[in-house]
Each structure stands twice: as structure tokens, then as C-alpha cells.
Amino acid sequence: MLSEHFELIETLGTNFAIAILFILIGLAIHDVLKTGNVPKFGRWFVWLVLFLGCVGFIAKGIIQAFLEPGL
Question: Does the pLDDT value for residue 1 go beyond 70?
């Protein structure tokens, strides 16, 4: 069974690993912004960029799911 679904398991594992990486990056950025006394505009800009990166990753996954046959 494992060999039959290896590609699906590999894709899910990669997506979960990248999601966890985004969470860890977010926690690190939160800590740096908190300890660095960054102005409110700078905080909004940093979080906007991080959010757009996450949205791009999610959009890529959705596009791949619709364009690649057999998944």
C-alpha cells in the first residue's frame, strides 16, 4: 500500500513541512518585531509580506491540484 501511494504521501509531507516552516518563520518574526520596537507601519508591512508569501504557496498548491491530472 505504501508504494502505491508514495507520491501522494510525499506531496502531503512536503506541504505540511512547508506549512510548519511558515509557522516557525511567523513566530520568529513576531519575536523580532516585539523585541525590536518596530513602528506599527513596519509591523503591518512585514506581516503583509509574510501573508502574501503564504497565499502564494496556497495558490500554487491549488493551481497544481487543478492542472495536474491524476492527483
Answer: no
